[in-house]
């Protein structure tokens, strides 16, 4: 009986010695296999679920007439039919580039691209992370009165003020355009609303929205937005 008691005591001591090591091994394994979700940057607080990530190469679906919250980065609107389906200027290719480089692929936005370069905003927007750009077409710029166009060409400070009025911090979801206001980088506010399936920003119509780029989302509009004086 004494031998059995000694054997039992030895086994119990061995089990107590092994237990902390096993627990430590389990904890270490848990740490090694845990992969935390990266924290978003300060400018991405308004990023929608479904916005394209840095690794995303393009939208999973083709353009649609109305916005779809289920499709990540799926462009919508009647003007989306004018976007190339493949190659430069297509949603898939624009999603691979930062904002200024992405819209430079689409000829109908060449006036905006030139204005961004003139005002030294192209690099600034390219380096931003998580923004929304309301992009006027060339036709929108041509609708401006000649004196306004001349003023913007000669006054870089005023041009920058107008262009930053088209930029909002965070990737804006289509659902956020149904009604309300958005604060711009210029400091003013934009009024957005949806009526009978038509989305507007101030008095400009959204021709093609929710177009993804590597660091931004683009809404192509039919008018240049002028900030209040």
Automatic annotation (TrEMBL):
Checking InterPro entries in the record gives:
Adhesion/Biosynth-related (IPR050904), FAS1_dom_sf (IPR036378), FAS1_domain (IPR000782)
The UniProt keywords, alphabetically, are: Lipoprotein, Signal
Q: Which Pfam families match?
A: Fasciclin
Q: Which residues form the signal peptide?
A: 1-25
Is Lipoprotein there in the keyword field? yes
Q: FAS1 domain location, by residue? A: 96-225
Instruction: Return one Gene Ontology term, BP aspect.
Output: extracellular matrix organization
Query: Composition bias, kind Low complexity: at what positions?
Result: 52-71
GO MF annotation, one: cell adhesion molecule binding
Q: Region annotation Disordered: residue ranges?
A: 31-92
Q: Name one GO cellular component term.
A: extracellular matrix
Q: What is this protein called?
A: Lipoprotein
Could you read off the lineage of the organism from its UniProt record? Bacteria, Bacillati, Actinomycetota, Actinomycetes, Streptosporangiales
